[in-house]
Records
---
Amino acid sequence: MKKKIEFGDVLDKVADLLIKLLPDNILKDETVVVRDIYNRILILLKFDKNRKKEKQQLINDIENALKELGPYYRGESSVLCACDLYESDIWFKNQDILTFRRNDVEIKLLERQITGQDWLRPKTELHTIPRLAFYSFKGGVGRSTTVAAIAFLLAQSGKKVLVFDFDLESPGLASMLLPIENQPKYGIVDWLVEDSVDNVENHLLQDMAASSRLATNMDGNIKVIPAMGAKTDGERIDPCYLAKLSRIYADIPKQDGRIERFSDRLERLVIESEKSEKPDVVLIDCRAGLHDLSAGSIVRIADESFLFIVDTPQSWQGYRLLFSHWQQFPKEADIIRRNLKVVHALIPPKGHREKPFLDESYRLFQEILYDTISSGDTSQDEKIFWFDRNIEEAPHFPIGILWDEFLSEFDYHKFDNSDTQQKIKSNYDSLFKTVTKILEK
């Protein structure tokens, strides 16, 4: 019985058809596979009118072969040439074109998705001001508390720290770092709403960052840009927050004809805030899960991303899901994997499974994101991305954070005693040392 084609089979099936029918040079340089938002396949060929006539039989053969895709066949005109398209460069030079590999053959792919494209759009340039993202697949792992603690330790060491609360759908970092009466007038969601209608003025950005008392009497300081601003006229909660939140994720058409992505808008906010506040380091508290906010934070914006993992099957499965998505696109994965570092979160004070956690973390990276090397071959080509299990600088090697009942319930507005500060230093010392090394680079 013939196997029924399902979503996960489609790209391999299309690749096999194209490898069989197209000459290597045309497949490599003049072909783009498009998977539309309804999961159906379109083949674009960079043929002008004259070449289309010459290649008509080839086009017909591809069209007929695509019928094998069953429900993923989009019907007539599943193969289009450049001469059939209005402004063909929009397709053939699209910034979102990926490369997937089949039997050592690279094929260009344009995924037309509603969300999630930023998981595969890494930026390659270094930033003048280091940006560190703190991410978790699941919530409730102490991520925001850690951001606050690291901000405190950095300020204590003399750094000017700028903190963004990018957990827009579950904001909380600002209330941890700022007394409610010190909340700034505007937040990130306000900026995104006003920016969408070109209504951002200088005063809005100036009224978004507030100083945290956490850095009182220190050489450094902590500035916080919250998810939401404090309503004026005596109200402390913005009653329009949900109405604003529901409108911010759309891509925005610009006057010059470009479409600006949501994550690019977020990065523009970071850039403009850096110019205004002039920090030494930026910390980003990410949204948990597989949301576009997370993709924008750890793939598009940050220089280094700390991945918080608790030792549960749900956490490991979640990261396998994300890593496997990256694995399908080696060029993008090679950029992303170099900026990751595992954090072992919520370690029980007694009886924690340090060795099994390291084994599981190593297995996760070795099987999915690390390159494969020959058995017993310890020599490494510079291009090979691989680490031994016990290399502490490796992405998989976990930075431990013990679970502490006092710190988990700690009110950071009342932190001004030496015992509390010592607890913070001891519990976050390993992570702070890693952050310091990153900044020294």
Note: Residues 7-112 form one domain.
---
Amino acid sequence: MPLFLTSPLPPTTPNTVSLQPAPNAAPQGNRSTPSRLSAEEVQQMLESRGHSELLKERTGHNLLLTAHRGTGPTSVFGSTFPQRYHPENSLQAIKTGILQGADAIEIDIFKSKDGTVMVTHDDEIWRNAFGADRSGARLPAGETKASYLVGQKTVDELQKIPIGRNGEVTPTLSEVIGLVNDANQTLTAYGKKPIILNIELKDETAVSPMLDLVEQGGRDSQKLAPESIIFCSFKHEALKELKTEAQQRGLSGINIAPGIKTADLFGKENMKEDFSLKDPNAKYQANAMNNLRALVEGNGFQGYDGILWDLRAPIADLAASGKKAIHASTSDFRQYAENRDFSHVLLELSKRAETFFKCDNVDDARKVLLESSLLLAGVGIQMLYKKTPEGGDAFYFYRPDDQQDNSAILKTGAKKAIAYSKLGSE
């Protein structure tokens, strides 16, 4: 454990990010502020991107932060959620992820009754509607569990159902693409890499209308290019169909990372009902890596999309040998500062392969990852300055015997943290 003491000394002023366009930026005439981002928000986005670039420099440019459902799951809190959180998969949550400097934005999609691709994590509307009974036991008058579904409602009907306390509604994929496009035009003008859109396919019937929107990006330089999208899903056959149809349409550069379930790695017999492992020290099934290699390399997919707590050395080595990416996801995990296992796993993964971390809060995750990268790479006594929760100044001193061989973390994996929604803190 680090030694701890407080001091009234002020922190060193951090480097600021210049808002001047890069030398290779687009001409002045193409640098108008997007309609969806104010000048202040553009500045915030660029400064946050500067902080993300510091993390990349520390990790060989292999660790990228993906804003999970925008700024994280809110449905886990029940029928309502803490006021400071935007509803998951809403334009407001996605915008917050963009302003926090996310390298990628993860969203989920279903198709509405009239064929519009909607951005929502669940088909069951009662899991998304603000104030609704999350069990579905009490539905609006005239509705049943068979009728109160995204796939049974038109886009107009869906956008009359609030998903947040401020009247936020379920957005369309077209709206989300428009928001990401606006941000990317500004980022490109300032010499920054565009935001990647990570689309999780929850509805097999949404493949064709989704590719209609992607195809527009392939024809229009002002739209989201196909190579700036990564598709993922636990519906592996649907992903194969997606790739086949994309090829038939002449869409190149399609990136696909199939979702990997805990059962795929450890076997159903080793899982509890809450999807955790019966034995925390359980190892992968004997045929797990061969099955994954056949799925990913056999279909020309981009990488592996797994739950952070399930990732171990064999899958990291598999990704490295095939030059594939790793997507490590969490859900309902915001207490980053209290648990560094997640950052140790990610830092080790990123040494082996390009790693996308799907996190609930980009700012919080980035701070802990930066701190961890500095401490793990340090020699001798190190000092770390932080603000206390009460707003005071604190200095942490780390002694050499606090340091350890971090590569061992991939043998056992990270310890699963207590869900934030279960901590009783609002």
Note: Residues 1-35, 399-403 have pLDDT under 50 and may be disordered.
---
Amino acid sequence: MTALKGIKVLELGTLIAGPFCARMLGEFGADVIKIETPDGGDPLRSWRVLKDGTSLWWAVQARNKKSVTLNMKHAEGRALARRLALEADIIVENYRPGVLEKWGLGYEQLKADKPSTIMVRLSGFGQTGPMRDQPGFGAVGESMGGLRYVSGHPDRPPVRVGISIGDSVAALHGVIGALMALRHRDVTGQGQMVDVALYESVFNLMESLVPEFDYAGVVRERTGGALPGIVPSNTYTTRDGQNIVIAGNGDAIFKRLMTAIGRYDMAEDPALARNDGRVPRTADIDGAIQAWCATHDIDSALAVLTAADVPASKIYSVRDMLQDPQFLARGMFEQAAFADGTPIKLPAVTPKLSATPGGTAWIGPALGAHTDEVLASLGLSAEEIAALRADGAI
């Protein structure tokens, strides 16, 4: 038994936000049909590191999905997509607003025939507003949503996180919205549209930015490796040149940290007993911690901090992850294989459900691998499918 067994999902979209949303639904048992163009499919198939011309990312992003090729410029292709949409419990799409409406697949158009339709729409700026028609990739969402402004060092331009975090955060909002809409449908029989904007999804993560500015006129700025206003929480460098994150910002933790590094004066200073007292002394506290780290290798520093029950970590590369006892104990990697038998390690599915865990049934499929199977499930004969293929509809 899987959590979403029996739920049908139609994915209309490419690259990251929409496909990641549908991917998570598929990882927990939903039957996901991914529509791709016959002439190459999702551009993600050719992104980053490739094996035999196909992205290794594809193995993860399209796992558990059925690839169906439909030519959406062809009337028959659009008609088949509509039939699949009306059979689906959830439709996930990330085209620019208005594209689906041109194809007769907009939310209101489908809802008229099927009131229980749930459509998750992921776009740069949402389905309304003056920017709705503008292209909005994750980088734009991260910038407009506030994340880029606070990322990096104060004396340098803003930096990006090394992954497509804006798209992925939007995808997670899409999953949350889809599950809430399913709950509402199960109670009322009515579907709804889940309108996810990339910039709004990033904005939703921005903690106290708005009330701090509205009430106190404070604009949160870039602070490098530190967490502003929460002290100490920063990145330090050990004797062997490794980077270590130490989060000693809890009041009791701070005292344990200062004791562990031999700064009893700070540990016992009543002025530093609370965070609001530590903030004005940020530079002194960080200096003391850095001075201690500079006398220890990463392993010995972590041993001392772990013994003192202080949250700390080396900053992991993927190489570190693959040999780390915690990752291994939690089963954070799955072993899979390509069609030619070549083994490939994938990240395991999260979150971990005790009764209905997710998993990988198959890795990202070849383009159109499930076209005949899915169209046959609509009642089309082999001859009809062959005729559609010859006509360029699939």
Note: The domain at 8-204+332-390 is CATH 3.40.50.10540 (Rossmann fold).
